[in-house]
Structure formats: structure tokens, C-alpha cells
Hints:
It is a single chain. The protein has eleven helices and two strands, in the order H-H-E-E-H-H-H-H-H-H-H-H-H. The protein is 75% helix and 1% strand. The protein is globular and about 70 Å long.
Amino acid sequence: MTAERRNNIATILITLVAAVVVIPIVFVIAFVIIQGMGMISWEFITSAPTNGMREGGIGPALLGTILLTLGTAIVAMPLAIGAAIYLAEYAPNNWVTRQVRLAIVNLAGIPSIVYGLFGLGMFVLFLGTGTSILAGSLTLGLMTLPVVISTAEEAILSVPPEFRTVSLSLGATKWQTIRNHVLPHATPGIITGVILGLSRAAGETAPILFTVAAFYLPELPKSIMDQTMALPYHLYVISTQVPGMPTEIQYATALVLLLVVLLLTTFATIVRTIMRRRREW
């Protein structure tokens, strides 16, 4: 068999594998759009559920998801980026550092239900926050940390070492070098990791089930110590716990949740593309 023939066979196999992965995803998204698009309106997005959640909209749940996503960003971003800078620039390359990196990778693979149980025991019960936006944000932030740390560290390490060498040789301190030459070039990768982590947090159900999500709250939260509705849990409730629920509302809720995640991912892609075009290397 010639090399060209092997190359053609490999190309066909890779294309088929990609199609097997992509086609079901496209089908699911298209099905949700077709089933739920008819219900989407400004009133549906902003109004509260009525008539036992069989009518009305998803306003409180959507707002709750936005608040939890913002809270997750506030909790996770400073800690994750700080830890990534330390691991990439300051930590010695020894056995302890390697074990820390291994632990971070393992933490990223822990099921979200475990984070939810930890949040219940640590934040809700031990620290006394109760089921609240604060407890939910802390739990989601903790769950997001490993992903953002790993992504941010890889982005920092991808900056050529020559940038550091030249800056240090001109008399800059290590922190000045990191702040002015390393972080600006690593920002696209860091932002991508942060947004992808927030996208995951916005779609999680298990962690908020134990720490913040309410079955039904027509009123909007007044502080971070209040409970709130959230789109993932609301979708679970109206799909399994409410008899006689119109399927259009179920699919419309799922479509809005997909759009929230899609907007976050699209924003990350746009920012990454713009900032990469400004790179000088």
C-alpha cells in the first residue's frame, strides 16, 4: 500500500470519526431549537412562572443563573489566575509541585455532585451561609478552579522564554516581567479558560441543587444570602416534577440555557481571536 493511499484512508477515517461526534450534537441542538423557538419571546424571558409553572416565563431562573455565573467568576478568577502564575513562574520544578499539578488535574475530573455535597457540608452547614447565592457561588467557584488553573498555566507557559530573558536583562524585576510581558501575551488563553469554566458552571445542576437552587421563587433575590431559581434546576423541575407541563416550555427553557452557554463560548472565541491578532509572535 502506497503512502498516498494510507494518507487517504487515514483522512477518511478521521472525517468519519469527526462526523460521528458532530452530527448527533448538531441534531440535538437543531431539535431543541425547532421545539422551543415558538415559545421564545421577551415576555417569556422576563416574566415569572405562573399557574404552577405551567405558564409564564423564566425570568427569575435566568437572573439566578446570571448571578451565580458572576459570583463564580468573582470567586474563581483571582484565585485561579494567581495559582496559575505561581505554578508557572515561581514554583520550583520538584516532586511537590508535580503532585500539586496532578491533584489539580484529578480535581477537574471529580463529578459535580461531589462538589455539591462538599458545598452543602462546608458552606451551607459548617460556615452557616444556608442555601444561598453565596454558598452556590463558592461551590461553583471551587468546581471551576481546577479547569481555569490548568488552562491559565498552559497559556502562561506558552509565552516564549525569550520574552522573560530580554525583560530581565534590561533590569526589570520578575513581577514587572510577568505583568508587562508575560500576562498580556497569555491573556487570550487565560480568558478562554475562564469563559469555558463559567460556561460549565452556568449549566451545572448538581452543585446548586444542594446549595442555592429553589423549586419555585416568584420574587427576585434581594441579597447574596437569599435563595434563587436557576435555569438548569428549573429545567429539571419542569421536566420531571410538574405534571401536565407543556413540552414547548420545557424545550424553550432548554434553548435559553443553550443560548447562555453559547454566548459565553462565542464571547471567549471572539476575545481570543482579537487578542491573538495583536500578538507580535
